[in-house]
Amino acid sequence: MSKSAKMMKNLTLSTALVVLGAGFAVAETPAPSREGGFGLGRAALPEEIAAWDIDIRPDGLGLPVGSGDVYTGEELYIDLCSACHGDFGEAVGRWPVLAGGRGTLDGEDPHKTIGSYWPYLSTVWDYVHRAMPYGAAQSLSDDEVYAITAYLMYLNDMVDDDFELSNENFLEVAMPNETAFFMDDRATTELTAFSVEPCMENCADSVSITARATVLSVTPEQEAAAATAAAATAAAAPTPAAVVEEVAAPAAAAAPDPALVAAGEGLFRQCASCHQIGEGAVNRTGPQLNNTYGAPVGSHDGFRYSPAFQQAGESGMVWDDETLTAFLLDPRGYIQGNRMAFRGLRSEEDAAAMVAYIRAAGGEAK
Amino acid sequence: MTDTPKHSPSRRQFLAGAAVATGAAATGKLVHAQAAGPDPLITELQPWQQYLGDGVDVRPYGVPSKHEAHVVRRTVPWLTADAVSSINFTPLHELEGIITPNGLCFERHHSGVADIAWGDHRLMINGLVDNQMVFTMDDLMRFPRENRTYFLECAANTGMEWRGSQLNGCQFTHGMIHNVVYTGVPLRLLLEEAGLKTSGTWLLAEGADASGMTRSIPMEKALDDCLVATHMNGERLRAEQGYPVRLVVPGWEGNMWVKWLRRLEIGDAPWHHREETSKYTDLLANGDARRFTWEMDAKSVITNPSPQAPITHGPGPTVLTGVAWSGRGTIPRVDVTIDGGITWHQARMSGPSLDKSMHRFYYEFDWDGRPLLLQSRAHDSTGYVQPTKDQLRVVRGFNSIYHNNGIQTWAINEAGEAENVEIG
């Protein structure tokens, strides 16, 4: 200790020395402040702050002027949210459940929904606005967010179907579970109780196994995963047959412009939260898209299409440049009543790129 | 000594037939194994001894040996609805020391990996400051910076194990953690640059990804040890870890370490956003919930042997190792038991012991080939001792999901295979 004390004396005031058990030390001189600042960075402009400062707080800080009613919210919700969250907030697959669950929090199977768990309505508004719809964040107008929030309140039996939510009445809403939350209390309930010198010898007469993971058998199989990866690698390599086909068929439609395909691939990120394409693609929230171009609308096995899509397919509609472009630019308007939660691409150019990518990536019907 | 042959012919024959290694013989003399015949890997010329290998620059950015291709992050597909808002796990059982290689640091994204160029990124500070400001990445690199080693653990690490043993492998039970040397600007310097108002008691950190990840952080922590980090383990952040800049919130739950950090807003109250209300709150048995449970409690796990890393060498000298960490300090001590907690032994700590960083421990023993029940128990520098899962359940019930730091048990059978179990 005397040695390290001596060392401490020799160090400048701003230097802290951490002496470790094994006798080596890490010298840490904190990065110094500069009086008045470094003069780095620049002033943020009001337009820039307005563009990024989108957060909402329970006390209403940040809440924009606007309004939306349950009916409008229901339409938006069915179009944009129900593919994952279900028509009534009950959720599809493992997507979050949004409604119900009241009275379950102290049970064996608690359902933590907006109505049963969330303490503040501002959280709903903020999250829907900043992160939803999944894959198209910040695409909703303020009024649309009010409307969807109103509908989510309705789904949770908080309001009647004629309710309209606005910045005027927003702060009047109290969430059912607000008072159930309390500040971390581990300091008093756990830390002292667990800070006790534990037993080291003869701590028990005997021990036996009370639970086993192998009974559940939910661990991913590593061998299987490795085999899948190997298969994917093999599949990624171009097969000789495909090469021959390309060479042998010069008269067929010209290969898509690689730049257009690349642009489409970038745009496809908007679709990838619901659709897969290429080797191994499977139906998810939306159908897989292999063998689509040139095929009838709504023809993928195993996908539960909307009645609108089924009718379109039965009427003989086929996916080609014209129909795909029209659909991708205005999914709601072109096939009315369909369930795809996407508002459409921004331009003809984007649509052309997307069609090129879909065809190149495996979407061409065989 | 030299007069006594170490290996008698009969002993050699026995070993050749049984092909086992042994420790001390019955006589007390050390007896090493004998080969049945010459090892062709020694007696025959191997290709790598004869032919030229790759030259420099075959891989301008190096990758692990192809013989280590199994050392990868892995996901548990059924945990999440899709692979974009999902998680994978660090292969702890394949690692040594305390530093996690950048390519093996677990990933958790809420809307996928944002792809942002260094030159396109901006960091804004707004709210209760004298000067609302915008910084480029090049601006940030002109502030004084520090190097600090910290663990980052997701609050949901081990969350699948609350109700009982579920996943067979420390990668899956404990792999939502990594330990990295960060280089970054103290958050304090950026707040000083903007001129923090005295009314500013909370800070909102926001990411630039499509989830717009946000967390409220009390100003005391922000001014204490948070970093705005640009580098991990000496190189710029990996895209999946928040390139070009992430927040480092030492010792606190990983969700707060906002990646692709684009904005810091100063306020006078917390925001209560989704990830601090709907998620990352701890539901107790009575239906009430703890909020703002930021600190990560002391925790440890034996990484070898474990279900993905069984004992393959049979009885004899065996190295048990694992990692321990605490969000409240260092880990001066880890206890290990191989009999399910009847007798405990102090493990040997090896490697740097740094504040809020991962620590490595070892316990060497001679395995007698009989079944074992392995546990480790971390003590942190505050005197806190890692509790059992049952101790936690008494306080919190079974529904908490987050902050499960209970003692982990691996059962080893006669074959050396390990299984995730609970004991009582």
Structural description of this entry:
The complex is a heterodimer of chains A (366) and B (424). Chain A is mainly alpha-helical. Chain A has three domains: 1-35, no CATH class; 53-180, Cytochrome c-like domain (Cytochrome Bc1 Complex, Chain D, domain 2, Orthogonal Bundle), CATH 1.10.760.10; 254-363, Cytochrome Bc1 Complex, Chain D, domain 2, CATH 1.10.760.10. Chain A is built from 15 helices and seven strands. Chain A has helices at 2-10, 46-52, 70-80, 82-85, 121-131, 142-155, 186-194, 213-216, 222-236, 240-248, 258-267, 307-314, 321-329, 331-334, 348-363; strands at residues 16-19, 25-28, 42-43, 67-69, 164-166, 181-183, 209-212. In chain A, the strands form two sheets. Chain A has a two-stranded antiparallel sheet with strand order 1-2. A two-stranded antiparallel sheet of chain A has the order 4-5. In chain A, a hairpin with a 5-residue loop joins strand 1 and strand 2 (25-28). In chain A, helix 11 (258-267) crosses helix 15 (348-363). Chain A is globular, with a radius of gyration of 29 Å. Chain A starts with a helix and ends with a helix. Chain B is an alpha+beta fold. Chain B folds into two domains: 81-290, Sulfite Oxidase, Chain A, domain 2, CATH 3.90.420; 299-421, Immunoglobulin-like. Helices cover 12% and strands 28% of the residues of chain B. Chain B contains eight helices and 23 strands. Chain B has helices spanning 9-18, 40-43, 47-50, 137-140, 170-174, 187-194, 219-224, 389-396; strands at residues 74-75, 88-89, 122-127, 133-136, 146-153, 177-186, 202-207, 214-218, 227-232, 235-236, 246-248, 261-267, 282-283, 289-291, 299-304, 316-325, 333-337, 345-346, 348-349, 359-367, 372-379, 409-412, 418-423. A five-stranded mixed beta sheet of chain B has the order 4-3-12-7-8. In chain B, strands 5, 6, 9, 10 and 11 form a five-stranded antiparallel beta sheet that branches. In chain B, a hairpin with a 6-residue loop joins strand 7 and strand 8. Chain B is globular, with a radius of gyration of 25 Å. The two termini of chain B are 50 Å apart. The chains are: A mainly alpha (366), B alpha+beta (424). Chains A and B meet through strand 3, helix 2, helix 5, strand 6 and helix 7 of A and strand 1, strand 3, strand 4, helix 6 and strand 12 of B.
